[in-house]
Amino acid sequence: MVDLKKFAVVHFLRENSVEAVPRSWISSNQLTCAYPRKFPQNFESLRSNEESVPPAQWGRYKVKILKSYDSLEKANRKANKFLVTSDVETTDCDNPNTSAILTLASSPPTDSVILPPPPASSIFTGINLGR
Questions:
Q1: Among 8, 13, 65, 115, which one is least packed by beta carbons within 10 Å?
Q2: Its domain of life (predicted)?
Q3: C-beta atoms surrounding 73 within 10 Å
Q4: If pLDDT is split at 50, 70 and 90, which confidence band does 86 have?
Q5: Spatial distance between the Cα atoms of 82 and 64, rounded to a whole number of angstroms
Q6: C-alpha dihedral over 81, 48, 123, 55, to 10 degrees?
Q7: What is the DSSP letter of 25?
Q8: Rg (CA), the chain
Q9: Is 117 exposed, middle or buried (CB count within 10 Å of its CB: 0-12, 13-18, 19+)?
Q10: Domain total for the chain?
Q11: Segment (H or E) for 76
């Protein structure tokens, strides 16, 4: 099923950080997300535009999509909830009465691309995600 919601809360796997982003920044296979290493002056304008195209110089980072929303405001509220409660175990497809554990692959697939370090500029960096 195609998710038609315009914004997503993503978990940057390497840095263990959470951010609300337009779905247009997420790859078609939903495994990576474009994100700047340093915030450009127009970052909030780009992030609030559901159809924004990330600049080519931004890095691509491995992510897990936690939840999708119709507005950036709702996505930001959920990202803040993850920051406060460290509740990143529930995703769109999880049963709300059970919790799944986020797991990282012990070794990347052979066809994977080595990505640069995750974004250090996330506004939700440094949270404890239960690991």
A1: 115
A2: Eukaryota
A3: 12
A4: low
A5: 14
A6: 140
A7: G
A8: 14
A9: exposed
A10: 1
A11: helix 72-85
